[in-house]
Design a protein that fits this description.
heterodimer; A: 524 residues; globular; B: 416 residues; alpha/beta; 3-stranded antiparallel beta sheet
Chain lengths: 524, 416
């Protein structure tokens, strides 16, 4: 399947790329097409349908800490217990996942190359050069679909969204690969301080938020502002416009090495003559004049990484991600306290959240975002995807759903509250995508529905509904809801009427689409 | 995907038809057509996301400080040549890329408002947008948007799913409220495939499962109704009228084109929001040419096509362009501008007292600027409030804009 066939997509057009436009020039401004404040404020969005019982606690853990409850993870958490499973996921390097990573390395080998080699494709293999960003997008989907390190991948997505870099911002198409490797993937379950410092030196971020163009004789405060507003302190975190200017001055000279003959081409570079060596005051803290090199900037990052407002921002966002759109203040306070007590140890903060009664009490309160919703359907089906299948998922499913990886233009990242996603267009697209997937129209995405249906011991509409309720919802339906699904599955036949396997196989795709479309499947 | 699959999907879609969806439509399918039974305008709100540089939208060419502050970005004063400001009143001029709109100013239906913005100064995109869209600067107590509250307060609102429309994948914050807004990005893809059997079982089951009054169910019911209405539109066959030509390849133009179709189909549209992004011109903003000029050209060409297409219907249409803030008066070191405060909004429509620039000019001298920014002399709520009262026939301005106090309308809208 090609984009052209789908009539969608906006791959970079030839001849107007940044390399032709001149090094370091940027055409598009980072703030893009989307209403970026949509849904920033939570509203009452409900939660699971009243007719649906709460899931088993272990299933709740899978719904929140993975991209969807697969049969394999359900078996694993049954074996290890909730605590054992969580600890194993936190200690992700102990999970042997060579299957997925080997697949990624084989399918998308360029993701492991040095940035110089990736950029060099412009001269040697233009096709490979321009299609590079889609390798990263597809690898991201593949990892979410099949990695055994599910919590790690969830956290990679979280940090990638927190330190959002829009993938279509000229040079970020290539730099984001480096950012993914050296920022989000490297520090996803490490220390916030390391993550912040890696992001500050990441060419993708330096480009996206303009710090690569922040010299002493004409500084640019874009990065300085978003660093404090979005990455660390939060908008009400206690900084002023004077702090924004001072921080911008501290980061003068932090740029990208644009010299293609240099061994560090495409990496961070400190330009001494572009730095402002004057004294600054940041958040009441004196940054003395004449400090060498990157000292000013690193001091700012250390200051921000230890700041109570940062602890609060990160604690709040993690609680919003894992607990509720409006997380309980008690839990946010506890998570922030852990942040401060452990110098921003991400695993420790997560343990505080996962061990809390607030977390365990919050089942089905998060409206799945489109990526989570789609992946949870694919994982429930045990689907696998080829390269072409990942292309189809990207352009045919995720694009209309509004959540392709790294496709959010403003720096605040995709909203993580239900109100931002619950609307007419979004629902209609979910329902249609349910049909595309269930009827097997997505070329390159395969699953064995016949096998799933044939394995049901009793051949009745009721038994098929019960089996799929377990598979998609991990719990039984109440009588009234069950009757709606049964009436659909058996076209009005009684729930316990014996039918042929052929009949069930004929009804199964529609029933899968109905489950995935139902209000019951929209919550995690 | 091969051709066969595409074909079979088409054939499949054909089998769904109106029947299946039609059976779901709830009884209130007779909507108050716009124009019939109400004299309210249809309001189109266009948000220029990113902080549009008002000083280069409507150029104060009569203020010499403008040229001193912007050595590389300033638009030359009116004169011979295409890359100069288009004179409006001897002091202000339109950016040349907005040339398509100049006839509307002359015709008296376009009213720029300069030095407009929020009374709560913020240099944050997200806070800036949030406060304007909520209509409560500096306050995040109400979660509803100003248009949401407008819809909640007008008596006897219709039940049309197209009463409030947000073009795009997300409903704009302005529309948030108890009246559900319909989001769409493309009318010709606005259909539900289901299982393709055409027996109504799939959609009937889905509708039963989405019964009730939860926020999710309400959105789902809205979707069923909207899909049923759009099914009768045949969006592929839409032909703009009066020689209107929408710019090619513009998502924004395509959104306006589809709104024109919804308006002409009398689906009960009252308010619509759409966005044009890319205004965060920290770097390489350009002057008469360049990245901002391209955006202005897309804006002007699309607006002019929409206005032309709607013909005499524009007598009952008001369009507002807005942005979260303007930009710093002085250009930065990277031939761009950083986040500022006062900006310039455009108000357009048959009921607008156009042909003049509104707002008190605060001046660009250092002592006249607000910390380097164009000062705000018009609170945006007074402009929107005036439109709410005079063009949308809603007297409840105190509910739509709580905290505004005594309104001071600039007088840019005629009373209905």
């Amino acid at each position: 399947m090609t984009n052209q066939a789908l009539g969608r997509g906006h791959r970079p057009s030839r001849g107007e790329g940044p390399l032709r436009a001149g090094l370091g020039r940027k055409r598009a401004a980072p703030l893009g097409m989307r209403p970026s404040s949509a849904g920033l404020a939570p509203r009452m969005i409900g939660g699971r349908p009243r007719s649906l019982v709460a899931p088993d606690p272990a299933m709740h853990v899978l719904h929140r800490l993975t991209f969807g409850a697969s049969q394999k993870e359900i078996a694993k958490i049954a074996r290890l217990g909730i605590q054992g499973w969580i600890e194993k996921q936190l200690d992700y390097t102990s999970i042997i996942d060579d299957g997925t990573e080997a697949q990624v390395a084989a399918m998308y080998p360029d993701l492991g190359l040095p940035i110089q080699s990736i950029l060099a494709f412009y001269e040697t293999d233009e096709e490979r050069f321009w299609y590079h960003p889609y390798q990263l997008k597809k690898a991201t989907i593949l990892r979410a679909l099949s990695s055994k390190r599910q919590l790690y991948e969830v956290m990679v997505e979280f940090w990638s969204n927190h330190f959002n870099v829009y993938h279509e911002n000229d040079w970020t198409r290539w730099f984001k690969t480096l950012d993914d490797r050296k920022v989000a993937r490297k520090h996803a379950l490490g220390r916030f301080r390391d993550l912040l410092k890696a992001s500050a030196r990441s060419p993708a971020m330096l480009f996206y938020l303009d710090n690569f163009l922040n010299p002493v004789d004409g500084f640019n405060e874009n990065y300085a502002r978003e660093l404090m507003e979005l990455h660390t302190l939060g908008v009400d975190g206690g900084y002023t416009q004077a702090d924004v200017v001072a921080v911008a001055r501290c980061f003068t000279g932090w740029t990208i090495d644009w010299n293609y003959e240099s061994p560090t081409f495409g990496h961070f570079r400190f330009e001494p003559e572009a730095h402002d060596y004057g004294a600054k005051t940041v958040l009441g803290h004196a940054i003395p004049a004449g400090q060498p090199g990157t000292t000013d900037g690193l001091q700012v990052l250390d200051l921000l990484a230890s700041h109570p407002s940062t602890a609060r921002t990160i604690a709040f966002k993690l609680c919003r991600r894992f607990v509720a759109d409006t997380p309980p203040a008690s839990l946010v306070n506890a998570a922030a306290a852990t942040f401060l007590a452990t110098d921003g140890d991400i695993r420790a903060i997560l343990r505080t959240i996962f061990a809390s009664p607030e977390f365990m009490a919050a089942a089905d309160q998060k409206f799945k975002r489109p990526f989570e919703w789609l992946l949870s359907a694919l994982r429930a089906l045990g689907a696998t995807a080829t390269d072409a299948g990942l292309d189809a998922i990207l352009w045919w499913l995720l694009e209309p759903l509004g959540q392709m990886p790294f496709d959010w233009a403003p720096p605040n990242g995709y909203p993580d509250v239900g109100g931002a996603w619950m609307n007419t267009n979004g629902l209609m697209n979910r329902w249609n995508v349910s049909s595309y997937v269930a009827f097997g129209w997505v070329d390159g995405v395969t699953f064995d529905l016949a096998d799933i249906i044939a394995a049901i011991p009793v051949r009745t509409p009721g038994a098929m509904v019960d089996a799929l309720a377990q598979r998609f919802l991990q719990r039984p339906l109440d009588a009234a809801d069950r009757q709606v699904f049964v009436a659909y599955a058996g076209e009005g036949r009684p729930a316990d009427q014996t039918v042929t396997l052929t009949y069930l196989l004929n009804r199964a795709p529609g029933l899968v689409a109905l489950f995935v479309s139902s209000p019951h499947f929209q919550w995690r | 995907m091969n051709g066969e699959t595409t074909l079979s999907r088409r054939a499949f879609l054909g089998t769904i038809g109106l029947g299946a969806i039609g059976t779901l439509a709830t009884p209130h399918l007779v909507f108050g057509a716009s124009g019939a039974g109400t004299t309210r305008d249809i309001l189109i709100c266009i948000f220029l996301r990113g902080g549009a540089d008002g000083l280069n939208v409507v150029v104060p060419h009569g203020d010499p400080r403008y040229y001193a502050l912007r050595p590389t970005l300033a638009i030359a004063p009116p004169g011979p040549g295409a890359d100069r400001a288009i004179n409006l009143d001897g002091f202000f001029g339109l950016h040349p890329a907005l040339g398509a709109l100049a006839p509307l100013y002359t015709a008296g239906v376009l009213a720029p408002v300069h030095a407009i913005g929020s009374p709560y100064p913020t240099h944050s995109h997200f806070d800036g947008m949030d406060y304007i869209e909520r209509g409560t600067p500096g306050q995040k107590v109400l979660f509803t948007g100003w248009l949401g509250r407008h819809l909640e307060t007008i008596a006897a609102g219709s039940a049309s799913p197209f009463r409030a429309v947000g073009v795009g994948e997300h409903v704009q914050t302005s529309l948030r409220g108890s009246v559900p807004a319909t989001a769409f990005s493309s009318l010709d893809e606005f259909q539900i495939f289901g299982d393709g059997r055409g027996d109504g079982r799939f959609l009937g089951s889905l509708a039963t499962l989405y019964g009730g009054a939860s926020p999710l169910s309400i959105q789902a019911q809205q979707t069923f109704q909207a899909v049923a209405r759009v099914a009768g539109l045949d969006p592929d066959a839409y032909q703009p009228e009066h020689g209107a030509v929408y710019p090619d390849g513009s998502w924004f133009a395509s959104g306006l084109r589809q709104l024109a179709q919804i308006i002409k189909a009398d689906l009960g549209l009252e308010v619509a929001c759409l966005d044009l992004g890319g205004w965060d011109t920290h770097e390489g903003e350009g002057g008469a040419d360049g990245s901002m000029a391209s955006l202005l050209s897309e804006l002007a060409g699309s607006l002019m096509a929409f206005y032309t297409d709607l013909g005499t219907r524009t007598a009952r249409i008001t369009i507002v362009t807005m942005s979260e803030f303007g930009r710093r008066a002085e250009e930065n070191g990277t031939r761009g501008t950083d986040h500022g405060h006062g900006s310039c909004w455009l108000v357009l429509g048959g009921g607008i007292n156009g042909g003049r620039v509104y707002g008190t000019w605060p001046g660009l001298r250092a002592d006249q600027l607000a910390d380097g920014d164009l000062a705000v002399t018009t609170d945006f709520r007074n402009v929107l409030g005036e439109i709410v009262v005079r063009r949308l026939a809603n007297p409840s301005v105190a509910t739509v804009f709580p905290g505004l106090g005594t309104p001071q309308y600039p007088g840019l809208a005629k009373s209905l």
